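Lab notebook: predicted structure, single chain.

Context: the supervisor wants predicted structures on file for every construct in the current expression panel, including those that have not yet been purified. This is the next one on the list. No modifications to the sequence; it matches the entry in the shared construct table.
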Amino acid sequence: MKSVFFVKGASTAEDLKRIHPLDMRRPYKIEKIIRLGDIDYKNFIEDLRPERWFISENAELCRVDGEGVWHSLLILGGGRDGILVMSAGAVYPMWAAYLENAAETEDL
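Prediction complete. Output recorded below exactly as produced.
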């Protein structure tokens, strides 16, 4: 199963790209892909802290299951990379991870 490094309370997408120990990576499952327009995506990645309608409407999909799999939303813009969000029921990205080449994913 694929894994990524989730960051708690990140402010921007740049905060998600920091170096981390490999044992801190978590397995994930994409529950839903959400595609935003370029301006909305840019606003999202430049400030991850505010409440977001697209997370609020899908918060029930975000959880960590009994096997430790992080059920997440994949947020995409017009580029190749994306942000995985595991809100743990919140309306903002409580936990987030940077995902390279996310637009090419077939995880659903």
